[in-house]
Amino acid sequence: MLRNRHILSGKFRKEVFDENTSIQAFRDRCEQGAARFARMPEGLEVKPFLIGDMKAEWLIPAGAAPEKAILYVHGGGYVSGSCNDHRGIVSKFSARAGFRTLIYEYRLAPEHPFPAALDDSVAVVQWMYDQGFKPENIVIAGESAGGGLCLALLLEMKNRNLPMPAAAVAISPWTDLTCSGDSYRTRNRYSLAPMNSWKVFSGHYCGKHDPSLPGISPLFGDLSGLPPLFINAGEDDELYDDGKSFYLKAEQAGVKVIFRSGKGQVHCYPLLAPMFREASEAMKEITDFVKFHLRADATSA
Q1: Handedness of CA 86, 24, 173, 217 (dihedral sign)
Q2: Tens digits of per-residue pLDDT, 179-235?
Q3: For residue 75, is pLDDT > 80?
Q4: Mean pLDDT value of segment 76-95
Q5: What backbone torsions phi and psi does residue 46 show, to the nearest 5 degrees?
Q6: How does the average pLDDT of the chain come out, rounded?
Q7: Sign of the C-alpha dihedral, residues 229, 247, 176, 278?
Q8: SS3 category, 284
């Protein structure tokens, strides 16, 4: 089996993060690294705009239905991430799914700790509803911290009595900012994440708040009433237990949830399609899930 840990360099494994690590330098590196995935799918249109003061973009594949959409929540440890550094990978996701996709720049920590990112995400959902998008025509997706924020957003929508979307996708989601899962200690050998980065990012995002709050760590929330979910997690990832534990708890709460475990795979590997077969297969299953829930009649979904 071809494993992405054999394709991707582990050069960052020697790096150790602490409270003195420059977040701006990390952001700059993420922006520079985005150039590797910058090539846009043929025929896809990019439309930048603002939601209030928030930068956002529509990524629109040719022939995409105007009334159906994916709302994509970018990752980056809650301290980095932008339309620019995610445009490449999200545009490929959008093109494979065949639906217009909205990405947006929620406020980042440490300048803007919790609940800024969550409040901004709720505002984007409300904006979509105000624009006439029906909940059953929206799928919310995200990766890493964005995957966790996607799930926290669902819980917050439930708390605010906002209609749920058709479904949601969380790729390698960060669901536990207390970092209590065994995989934080047992999956370090092949993971690409700098050591202790999760603790540093958690501290920046949580600020003075308890990291076990469901709005921060959705793993600790009441998961009943959530829409159908698809969760993917690579086994060679510190966040593996975050995804698996959320799946198990959601299943116990009666949620329709699919969990896919990537043997020998690292963080967010489906987004690396078409670099290797496992990534392409995982991405196809994810986009098939999106297509089903955006095209199927609500009664049959």
Answers
A1: negative
A2: 999 998 888 777 777 788 899 999 999 999 999 999 999 999 999 999 999 999 999
A3: yes
A4: 95
A5: -110, 125
A6: 91
A7: negative
A8: helix
Q: What is the CA radius of gyration of the chain?
A: 18
Name the nearest CA neighbour of 142 among 109, 104, 96, 196: 104
Q: Return d(Cα 13, Cα 25) in angstroms, integer.
A: 17
Sheet holding 138-143, edge to edge: 45-51, 54-60, 100-104, 69-73, 138-143, 167-171, 229-234, 257-262
Cβ(255)–Cβ(226) below 8 Å: yes
Residue 157 host element (H or E) = helix 145-159
Chain segment 99-111, per-residue pLDDT in tens: 999 999 999 999 9
Provide the 8-state DSSP code for 8: S
CB of 71 within 8 A of CB of 126?
Answer: no
The per-residue pLDDT for range 30-69, each reduced to its tens digit, is 888 776 666 788 999 999 999 999 999 999 999 999 999 9
Which three-class secondary structure state does DSSP give residue 138?
Answer: strand
Whether residue 110 is preceded by a cis peptide bond, meaning omega within 30 degrees of 0, is yes
* 113 three-class SS: coil
Give the angle 73-280-45 at the CA atoms, nearest 5°.
50
Which of 157, 176, 166, 143 lies closest to 256 in space, CA to CA?
Answer: 166
Buried b (16+ CB within 10 A) or exposed e, 42-75: eebeeeeeebeebebbbbbbeebeeebbbbbbbb
Residue in the structure block whose two tokens are 């904006």: 127
Q: What's 62's DSSP letter?
A: T
